[in-house]
């Protein structure tokens, strides 16, 4: 199927690049699978902030991000949301764990 709309092409291109980037940063099986409950839990926490007492929403966000943080510690790279801040501050960061870095052909 051909997409005739330039906005749709750009959105699909962005989504494809974001997916590849995410998969590159989550190559360790345990990190990948620990994100499967962590991401929905953090997102549900955002919704819960508006429909239940505040501590349920904050709890969901904290537990969801904690699970993701543990996964990134296991893989050996930084949590994706922290990388832009580290870049701005000039701090070192690890986007893709060294054991999963592509080997140079030189």
Write up this protein.
The protein has a domain at about 30-90. The chain is mainly α. The chain contains four helices and no strands. The termini are far apart.
Percent range for helical residues?
55-70%
Largest beta sheet, briefly? none
Which descriptor suits the 3D outline?
globular
Q: What's the average pLDDT? A: 88
End-to-end CA span: 40 Å
Strand residue percentage = under 5%
Which stretches are poorly predicted, pLDDT < 50 over at least 5 residues?
none
Number of strands: 0
What does the secondary structure layout of this molecule look like, with pairings?
Layout: H1 6-25, H2 29-51, H3 54-75, H4 83-89
Describe, in short, the structure shown:
By secondary structure, this protein is mostly helical. The protein is built from four helices and no strands.
Name a few traits of the molecule.
68% helix, mainly alpha, 106 residues
């Amino acid at each position: 199927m051909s997409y005739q709309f330039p906005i749709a092409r750009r959105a699909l291109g962005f989504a494809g690049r974001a997916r590849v980037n995410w998969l590159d940063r989550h190559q360790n099986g345990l990190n990948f699978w620990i994100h499967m409950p962590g991401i929905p839990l953090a997102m549900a926490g955002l919704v819960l902030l508006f429909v239940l007492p505040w501590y349920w929403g904050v709890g969901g966000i904290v537990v969801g991000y904690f699970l993701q943080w543990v996964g990134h510690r296991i893989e050996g790279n930084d949590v994706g949301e922290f990388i832009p801040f580290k870049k701005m501050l000039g701090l070192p960061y690890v986007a893709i764990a060294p054991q999963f870095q592509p080997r140079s052909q030189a």
